[in-house]
What we know:
Strands 1-2-3-4-5-6-7-8 form an eight-stranded antiparallel barrel. By secondary structure, the chain is mostly beta strands. It is built from one helix and nine strands; from the N terminus they run E-E-E-E-E-E-E-E-H-E.
Amino acid sequence: xxxxxxxxxxxxxxxxxxxxxxxxxxxxxxxxxxxxxxxxxxxxxxxxxxxxxxxxxxxxxxxxxxxxxxxxxxxxxxxxxxxxxxxxxxxxxxxxxxxxxxxxxxxxxxxxxxxxxxxxxxxxxxxxxxxxxxxxxxxxxxxxx
Length: 145
């Protein structure tokens, strides 16, 4: 799963407002992962670095990721991946026990995916009781290579 992933579609997230969203995952120790996400927002590249932890090596698809105080620790579950083309990721968290927030991402090793692949991904989310009706496509045009 390590390496560069491009965001193809997502549930709306307050912290993602730009285009050309991508994330690079690098294993730093046995269970710790360096996570660097970037996007272009208002013509500027914005990056944020976080730390991912595989809490139980028996379940390596269930990570916890923290991006410092901006985005505190939250689960990051890889629901499905073929490692070479696509990955489906889900996260949900309660904020101050007042709000429940969920996130979902369709990731790809390339900036775009065939529409049939995106539809299959959305079906997988739906089978896991994740509402994809709010899912939006991530703009990946005019990005650096």
